[in-house]
Amino acid sequence: GLPQLKGTVSMAAVLPLAAVRSIDPDALARSEVTVQAKLSGEPGNALLNLLGLDRMVATGNGSALFEGEATGVWNAPIRLNARMSGTDLDAAIKGTMEPWSSDRKADFDLTMRRVDLGPLLDLRSSDSHARNVSLSSHVTLAGSKLIFNDLDGTAAGARMRGHVAVNFGNENVVEGDIGMDTLDLASVFGVAVGATGHDAAEPLGGSLPKGWRGQLAFEALRGVLPGGVELRPVSGIVKGDDQSLTFDAIKGKIGDGDATARFNIRKAADGVALKADVQLTNVDGAALHYGALAMPTGRASAQITLASQGRSASALVGALSGSGLVTLERARIPGLDPRVFDAALNASDDGQTSDDTKLQQIVEQSLSASPLPVASVQIPFNVRDGRLRVSATTLDGDGAQAIVSGGYDIAADQVDIRASLASTSAGSANNRPEVQIFAVGPPSAINRTTDVAALSSWLAVRAIDRETRRLDSIEQRMTPSPVPPPATPLPATASLSAESSEVSATPLATDDPPLADAPVPKRDPRRSRAQSRMAAPLPATNSLSTESSEVSAAPLATDDPPLADVPVPKRDPRRFRAKPRMATQARSTAAPQAFNAPIPPWLARLQAPFATQPARTSKPVRRRQPLVLRPSASNPSRPAF
After folding, report:
1. Whether the Cβ atoms of residue 499 and residue 491 lie closer than 8 Å to each other
2. Residues 164 and 157 sit within 8 Å (Cβ to Cβ)
3. How far is Cα of residue 578 from the mean position of the Cα atoms in its chain?
4. Which of 68, 63, 129 is nearest to 94 (CA)?
5. What is the spatial distance between Cα 581 and Cα 583, in angstroms, rounded to a whole number?
6. Contact indicator for 226, 219 with CB cutoff of 8 Å
7. How confident is the chain (641 residues) per 10-residue block, as mean pLDDT?
8. Which of 320, 439, 488, 592 lies at a C-alpha separation of 20 to 30 Å from 480?
9. If you compute the radius of gyration of the chain from its CA atoms, what whole number of angstroms results?
10. CA-to-CA distance for 9 and 31, rounded, in angstroms?
């Protein structure tokens, strides 16, 4: 239905009777007048509209009540005492004001025990940041300048103090200093861009200053960032003009390090444009965390530059871009214990890794035992379309090397991290055991998994190689070593040469028959044993019988020297140049006899090479012509053998 307003207004004055009777205006003006008013409205916003407070505070759907009293003398300060209450409103003022002065003046105490400042901050009345705000201050009005001194209050659970001066003129200017015990930086930034208390698809810029300018310095004992990161203390300056709002010279201490930042929000043709610069110096990495996602322990430094533009909060996040560089010194990366490979090798040698499931359990327990120490590393990253990406970065640790990559989707609030941990002590340079680690999910509940397929394959190859070497070692121990053949002693050349001069042409005095009776072989008897016994073919009987008397026992007339003149050799005759062919004595024609002369004892006493080894020569063996007995020249008709 229509809003309903009810109220009463009463005025009371104490007038001198004489002044009334004489109708003395000056006397009546010096009389004290009291005006009392009591108004109620349902809903309460109707009463706020009547009093012109609807753009500053809000009351709930219930009724609102205003009670006020003004007492004073004409052209003199008026004592004012008023109170307003409602569902989300309880405020009172008490002081003096001079409405008759050409230069407006007022001096009163403002007390807000409970108030909803949603309309002033462009927030919904249901937003917790605007509701239950309490404030007290001594307010002074001098012309167009309103000053809030001794400001003390609480907002969103934070205590604040300070003073603020507002100048209402051609330009509305705000100046002041605010000190707080706790400052939610993310909420303040959201209020500044108009995103807090609104849907992500709603247009931004409702809370940007319109026709306002000035600066407000702030300082807080504790500043809170998204994810619970704290800055102790934090300070900065909020500057604004008709088109932009800047958070400048933001400084804070975080993790025994320094943090500086600057944010600029400006109206643009496509909504709101954002630029941000953040720098961290020598910060304890453990102090930088977002949910369960935390920076490794160590000293961290970072430089980050971001920019975006959009009509709504979702568009602003989706268009976020930038880059940065994170430097870690003396870092200790959790969940990457390099001793995991020693545990896997020991388990494999003990037969505890019969399948990948058991190996995965051993690896997961070992990975979380100790961190991976890294002396120094630089991690570059970039932001594009609201997604933070970390390219593959190598972390050289003590005993292992990790390659880390991944990213974070800001709009979806999802983390995707991949790490490959490889041993630097086990395996070869091109074949190292490694483990894959994956971490996905929201930062508040990251799901971590481990892939041991590569490690399992490496352990299997190692086991096969070790078994192969073991079998080869057993086979080598079982195989006997070959025995080298005995070396054959060579004849003493020096002694032979020394004794060669002592050899006489006369045979030695031995039991051997004279060499004249021993036939000289024409070829090596070992090459043809079957021909060792040579016999001349039998001639015709009648011819032999008639001509036997003509055969002489004397040797044939040849150029060969007699056998008696041949020296006895002291060494293998095959090592010397062939001797001239000796003449062969005539054989008896009575009956052919086989060549079967006994071996002389002096010949048997010679060394083995004389009887067993062939002649070592590269020259081809010259085959000699068979022995032929020629008849006498006086009887040419005699057949030859």
Report:
1. no
2. no
3. 86
4. 68
5. 7
6. no
7. 80 75 73 89 85 83 89 88 91 91 88 87 69 90 90 89 88 91 88 78 69 89 89 93 89 94 89 93 92 89 95 92 96 93 90 86 92 94 95 93 95 94 87 93 92 93 88 82 64 45 44 48 50 44 40 44 50 50 45 51 53 52 59 48 39
8. 488
9. 62
10. 19
The enclosing H or E element of 245 equals strand 244-254
Report the DSSP pairing between strands 172-180 and 212-220. parallel
Enumerate residues 6+ apart whose C-beta is below 8 A from 329: 298, 299, 300, 301, 375, 376
CB 186, CB 224: distance < 8 Å? yes
Mention every residue, 6+ apart, whose C-beta is less than 8 A from residue 32.
Answer: 13, 14, 71, 72, 73
Strand partners, 115: 133
The kind and range of the H/E element at 346 are helix 340-349
State the burial class of residue 58 (Cβ atoms within 10 Å of its Cβ: 0-12, 13-18, 19+). buried
The model's pTM is: 0.66
Are 359 and 456 in contact by the 8 Å Cβ rule? The answer is yes
Q: Which residue is it, tokens 């045979």?
A: 507
pLDDT digits (tens, 9 = 90+) for 98-125: 888 878 889 999 999 999 887 877 776 6
Q: Which amino acid would we find at residue 616?
A: R
| Residue 604 confidence (pLDDT) | 56
CA separation (Å) from 372 to 172, 283, 400? 57, 19, 8
Q: Distance (Å, rounded) from C-alpha 174 to C-alpha 145? A: 10
Q: DSSP for 118-187?
A: HHHHT--TT-TTTSSEEEEEEEEEETTEEEEEEEEEEETTEEEEEEEEEE-SSSEEEEEEEEES-EEHHH
Bridge partner residues of 67 (DSSP): 38, 83
| Structure confidence at residue 205 (pLDDT) | 59
